[in-house]
Design goal:
It holds the Pfam family ChW. The structure is a single chain. This protein is mainly beta and about 475 residues long. The protein has three domains: about 100 residues, Immunoglobulin-like; about 100 residues, Immunoglobulin-like (Sandwich); about 160 residues, no CATH class. Helix content is about 10%, strand content about 40%. The strands form eight sheets. A five-stranded mixed β-sheet has the order 2-9-8-4-6, with no helix packed on it. A five-stranded mixed β-sheet has the order 11-18-17-13-15, with no helix packed on it. Strands 21, 22, 23, 25 and 28 form a five-stranded antiparallel β-sheet that branches. Strand 30 and strand 31 form a beta hairpin.
Length: about 475
């Protein structure tokens, strides 16, 4: 070998968002002038710069280059020891490539973001907001969630109350708010509350929301019922007091005149002529069918009888019903995607791809149907033009459907926002649902499944970033 190398120091430490420099020394132990090229390899290569990138040395001389590390303050900068290496390739003797190795310790940092979805819920007896907790640090996050309000007017059912979130991931905590007193009559009342994300050794992160409690009976309805009952009682009393005594004197006058009041005996009447037997019987009117857009189809009102009937649309429910007929005891999930500028894709099932990959065409809506899972429910997370934190939101509540029935999330309107992701689950105790999503600029994400036994009874497919979008999905049960 015609090269000697040394890293000074061999191990270094750096904070995410900062930088540190290691000096790489090398000596030309050969007998010819040589030029050396430097290239970083390993997981730290995107954040590493070698200056200068090439070095020319005479035989027996020594030189050095600076290796600078600048990991970002993101979950990608994994906390703890991270090995790295620098490949040194001699120009004159490329076969004598040397790869000195070192170790860079990245310090841990924590950053948590929490958001209520939606921030305001309404109800008479309960409200069901969700708390989205994002781990933006580079270490696993362990936290508990609790609720409080002024005046102790609400009770809180939080599930799960403890979460563990990997770096760069998010967890959804379902909360049920119940007022301790029912408002029977009157106007609605706003009850502010706070959900706190508590971690060991730091102050709790509070997220404020509002529960709008409606009265059991609106004030106008109570007034209407009171007036109606008063009028009804008044009418009954007047009827009883002033009921007229009607008596006809016609019969008495007839008796006085000696005229019988018995009805006359019936006489034979001529039979009506029958209709001609050669008159054709008119055919029954065609029964109209209701299309997906709510318009009536079929014969009627002077329409042409020889028009062709349009074939029914093949939805996710159509596909899953066919699978259920072939495999009555199995579990299946079918789905299709509404692609921007292209419309609905063909329905696919059990892990096949719905949508497009690499064509930069976002999804607008998703149609899902299941069999053998006691139904399914889901919700769409879409682009939020009014976001202040660069993330989307859930504009609509969860929607669900029983086995064999179509469930739709998102919107197919012309100006509908792009889908960033969606939550999905299946009926309680009926197994798990797994998903993987293809996100613009991020590619296919890892396979994720819900785990009802540990409290995670739904899974989230996609991203939270307003600048990205969902391009394709794969679902299995």
């Amino acid at each position: 070998m015609s090269l000697w190398t040394s890293l000074e120091p061999a191990s270094a430490t750096v904070d995410p968002g900062g930088s540190t420099t290691v000096r790489l020394r090398l000596r030309n132990t050969g007998d010819v002038v040589d030029e050396y090229r430097f290239e970083t390899v390993g997981g730290l290569a995107p954040w590493t710069v070698v200056e200068p990138p090439t070095l020319r040395l005479y035989p027996g001389t020594t030189g050095s280059v600076d290796v600078t590390f600048a990991p970002p303050r993101t979950p990608d900068a994994t906390a703890g020891p991270n090995p790295y290496a620098v490949r040194i390739t001699p120009t004159e003797h490329p076969e004598a490539t040397t790869v000195p190795e070192g170790n860079l310790a990245i310090t841990p940092f924590t950053e948590v973001r929490a958001e209520l979805v939606p921030p305001t819920v309404k109800g008479r007896f309960r409200g069901r907001p969700k708390l989205a907790v994002d781990n933006l640090g580079n270490t696993k996050l362990t936290a508990s969630v609790s609720g409080s309000d002024n005046g102790d007017q609400l009770s809180y059912d939080i599930h799960p109350s403890n979460v563990q979130i990997e770096p760069g991931r998010a967890a959804f905590v379902k909360t049920t708010l119940k007022p301790k007193q029912v408002i029977w009559f009157g106007s609605k009342e706003s009850r502010p509350y706070t959900l706190a994300v508590q971690r060991s050794g730091v102050d709790p992160l509070g997220v404020e929301g509002t529960y709008v409690q409606r009265s059991f009976l609106p004030r106008w309805l109570a007034t209407f019922l009171g007036i109606f009952m008063a009028l009804a009682i008044t009418f009954v009393m007047l009827w009883i007091a002033y009921k007229p005594n009607v008596r006809s004197t016609a019969t008495e006058k007839l008796h006085e005149a000696g005229i019988s009041t018995l009805p006359p005996s019936p006489t034979a009447s001529p039979k009506a002529p029958k209709a001609p037997s050669n008159v054709p019987t008119p055919p029954p009117a065609a029964t109209g069918t209701r299309q997906a857009d709510g318009s009536a189809a079929g014969a009627g009102g002077g329409g042409s009888g020889d028009k062709e009937t349009k074939a029914p649309e093949r939805t996710a429910a159509t596909a899953v019903q066919k699978l259920a007929a072939q495999d009555p005891t199995g579990r299946h999930i079918c789905y299709r995607a509404y692609v921007s500028g292209q419309g609905w894709t063909e329905a696919v099932c059990d892990g096949e791809t719905a949508g497009t990959v690499g064509k930069e065409t976002p999804l607008k809506a998703v149609n899902i149907a299941v069999s053998g899972t006691k139904g399914t429910s889901s919700d769409a997370f879409v682009h939020n033009p009014g976001s202040t934190n660069g993330e989307g939101h859930f504009p609509d509540p969860w929607s669900g459907a029983a086995d064999g029935i179509d469930n739709y999330v998102g919107s197919t309107k012309k100006d509908a926002p792009n889908m960033l992701g969606l939550t999905v689950n299946v009926g309680g105790g009926a197994g798990s649902v797994c998903q993987t999503a293809h996100v613009h600029n991020d590619g296919w994400l890892g396979l994720e499944c819900d785990d009802p036994k540990s409290g995670f009874d739904f899974t989230y497919a996609g991203t939270h970033n307003n600048d990205l979008w969902l391009e394709a999905i794969k679902l299995t049960v």
